[in-house]
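Render ABC transporter permease in 3D.
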Amino acid sequence: MSTSTSTRTEVVQFSSPVRAKPAPALARAFVAEWIRLSSKRIWLIALSATVVYSAVLTVVMINTAPQRAPAGISIQALGESGGGTLAVRTAAAFTSVLILAVFVGMSAGSFARGTWRASLLQQPRRLTLAVGTFGARIAIGAVIVAVLFVAGMVTAYVVAPGQGIDTGSWLDDTSLRMAVDDFLGVMVFVIGWALLGTLIGILTRSVAVGLGVGILWAGPIENVLGDNLTFGSHWFPGLLLRYVVAPETATVTGATLALRLALYAVVGVLLVGVILRRRDVSS
């Protein structure tokens, strides 16, 4: 009797279905946004434009570099350790308005098209949805930045010898560490502008208005007014982000720069959280 009972128990245990644990809500939001933005057409356009942009800017910067300069890109600096990514890192500073516009468009457009409201039907926790969505967009940005660096380094290797630049030290241990630092610096730059664009888009909820506000700030206010004011050069977020990829132009020390950027990041995240939690999804 005991043997048959044991056998039946084992059969029941073996035949019982194994239920996989559902993915965390944050991961589902991340994957959903990644899939939405990962069509072949989007990747083809984004990566092709990145390769062309990186190649053209690298060629221009190397061909116009002075023989010597107290700071920044020069023939002398390009021939030293880290020279292979120097032009690419500096070229990233010219993408601020583009990054801002892309993230304003995505965040404001999700409200204008009703995408945000539809997504809340699947994931009602707003902050979880926002973090997962933003994370997926940054992850795609990281892939694009990696392609930017690869295309820029390949271009630099082709162009540099024609300008008398020695590339022998570009692959030593110091250069590899500097390449990682340059990549991380560009990612900080991208995340900073992406957060600012997302905040503007959520505030305005209109692509046209958001782009107008963003371009006005990133253009004349930051680069004209800010560059000519001591307060602006020390506190304007866009200029602080520029110092990350162009440290030779910085007017503040590294520790102060990190502290102020961290302060802006915390304020930006808190504002996004408060707005998303309190405003009606249809407003």
